[in-house]
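Issue: copy button drops trailing tokens. Both records pasted manually instead:
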Amino acid sequence: MSFAHAHLLGIEQLNPFDITTLLDLAEVYVDLNRRDIKHSDALTGLTQINMFFENSTRTQASFELAGKRLGADVMNMAMQASSIKKGETLIDTAMTLNAMHPDLLVVRHPHSGAVDLLAQKVNCAVLNAGDGKHEHPTQALLDALTIRRAKGGRLQRLNIAICGDIAHSRVARSNILLLGKMENRIRLIGPPTLLPAPFKEFGVEVYDDMRDGLKDVDVVMMLRLQKERMDGGFIPSEREYYHRYGLDAEKLAYAKPDAIVMHPGPMNRGVEIDGEIADDINRSVIQEQVEMGVAVRMAAMDLLARNLRARRTDAGVMA
């Protein structure tokens, strides 16, 4: 498989062929993960370090499980109590990591661009598990795989609504980039305070009314209200937000009858989405998103490891 990237830092660097290559390999790992014996030797002999400067139970667990199923030696670094807290710079951390000779580095960081900076300073493959408001590439890829499987293999020319807290969402940014590259029609829905002007440059349609925005869409992607990134004044109250922008049966009725409902998690039930909609096995694919997350991360690490080994082999030949 051809995937000409040393790192996975964002969707912005990928083309449609890259995306399809990664999703096709992820399909192989979906099948593997449903077997009784779920192990591959794709990363045997390699070391994976997970560095999460922000807490994220499901993303970190997904990457850890993905690495172990591929045969890697996986280490989780407790960054909340690390040397960074004692004043060490990100560059010093990179130098320390280089001395440990890791092969794959998975990083989540609260500041946009921090993962890219680390990638420039370490001698291994780096995967972005979310950096500030910038990107969350593996979330967009697992969302794409979920959509493709739910829509009979189709990931083009769909009407897709992304709803809620667009302003603070790296998930929204990565999905807008990926779904746009795959020729889909994207609608952003939310209150004006959570719909920043720069997103209009991506060629999306913008709505501040849920019913208008959801009319005849194939996919409804709800976003978490990221209160930890807000400094007040974005919404009048959670109750009012749910009344206007929370997904319930009445609003969902404006979408196509076979429209699927998505959410990256964790969900705030009764704020972004009605609990019955979230649990509706005929409409919700939220649990499928979690399953696809492991497979997509396995595929991403497999492809990057192949490139890493190839580069090291070439370097050895040249030396």
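Record 2 (pasted manually too):
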Amino acid sequence: MIEKTLLANPSKNRTPRHRAREFALQGLYQWLLNNEDAATVVNNIRAAHGFDKADVDHFSVLLYGAIKDSAALRASLAPLIDRTIAELSPIEHGILLIGAFELKNNLEIPYRVVINEAVELAKSFGGIDGHKYVNGVLDKLAGRLRESEVGADKRR
């Protein structure tokens, strides 16, 4: 289902890292719906059209990392959302897992970039106002996980 959406929304401005996030989202969607192991998901995604244009290393880190750390990531998101994790759409759920993983583990990526990339994924693949929800949740999470970076940014 999401694969068709990915193919139906071609963008000439997508960077390899953005494409990696799109494919990681596709993999998380598959994992959330089918409860397949990470290796099976990765093999399916690697065969997808356009995967060769993605940052393969970043894709692997995101997908394996978000799956492996999903319990801890969900625990960090739970106090920031207005419903249970189970009530999130699989798209929002996957985007929030990717965003939370990057905020927690990819400190070299500025928190604003992480949030912006997640918002762009939500605009492309989520519901009508899903991007606003993703933005709000990840902004709160950034304040917790990257307090000094967010504080320094606000002081500017």
